Amino acid sequence: MLKLNKIYLAKILIGLFLFLPANAEFDIKTDTAILQDYLSGKILFEKDADGKIYPASLTKIMTTIVAFDLLKKGETSLDEKITISENAWRLSQSGYSSMFIMLNDEVTVEDLLKGIIIVSGNDACVALAEGLSGSEEDFVVLMNEKAAELGLENTNFNNSSGINDVNNYSTVRDILKMSRYMIKNYPGYYSYFKETSFTWDRTGGDPITQGNRNPLLYRNMGVDGIKTGFLTVEQYSLAASAKVGERRVTLVASGFKTKNSRARESMKILNWGSKKFDTIQVTKKNEIIASLNVWLGKKNKVDVVSSEDFYLTIPKRKKKTIKAVLEYEGPIKSPIKKGEKLAQLNVYISGELEKQIDIFSSEDIKRSNIFSRLLKSLNYLVWGDV
After folding, report:
1. Cut 0.70: pTM above it
2. Is 301 a residue of the active site?
């Protein structure tokens, strides 16, 4: 007879402690903010995270994502040269943050990307958009299609640079999703965001060296990207990601009143998120969790695994342990196919279910021959053993 079995997995509880979100004990001096642990996806802090903002140069995160997608598809290359139009050149003459590209110059995709990422060049955004899609308007269509793909429900783009436009809006939560996508899917290209300066050796003019506008890159706190922004209507904004050891925390915030407060408050919350929490791996993809009893199989046990890495972010100082329970109906009837769902790992915090993880067979197990099945059935009837 099948019965519900529970296995309490004490070995994965070592070092795991309860943590409750601490918004009540922490605040940041800005209008809207969100902080996330990268591995677990746990939101550690949020403040009006779905409030509408004008993202300014944080828009450029999506601009570069679209470009990286096109690079991945082979539709362009880093060394492809783009001819600078008058439309793009005029932005370099209008007082906006610029790469200072020259009219009719030919600039590689890689240099334009660096001009966007490192020095926040609005002229470089327009040049790249025109070069890759024919027009900035057509490129913006790709940006909004990507936003829909990523589930950015409160975001619309109307230009590639973030220049003030009432129809160019987002939320810090949506920008966090963009940032997470960037870090996860394009780690190689993401390394551009940590470069502290870029020298544009332009044709027909002296080389221009500009520094990265992200002030946290110059602090010894593990920040390796990603973007700052400013609009008079929005004030100062920032998306920043810091890696300390194996942990990464990512912040998006907007509405800082000054550059100094942006740097100071962002440092404060990133340090808080890095030092206040630990992230522990609960399951490792394809690592054996347990061996479960098999009924009438050629093997008496089947090894089971998780199909995903699962992380839990918890506080460093709380002492209450969490509990992980493996539940399944067993003994499990053969035959069993590799990858077949056999059990469920339930992770509890203070008695409340935090996460359910499906657990699968790591192997194929065939049914035993008829004589073995008869013998095992007899043993079960007599001794109650499989």
Report:
1. yes
2. no
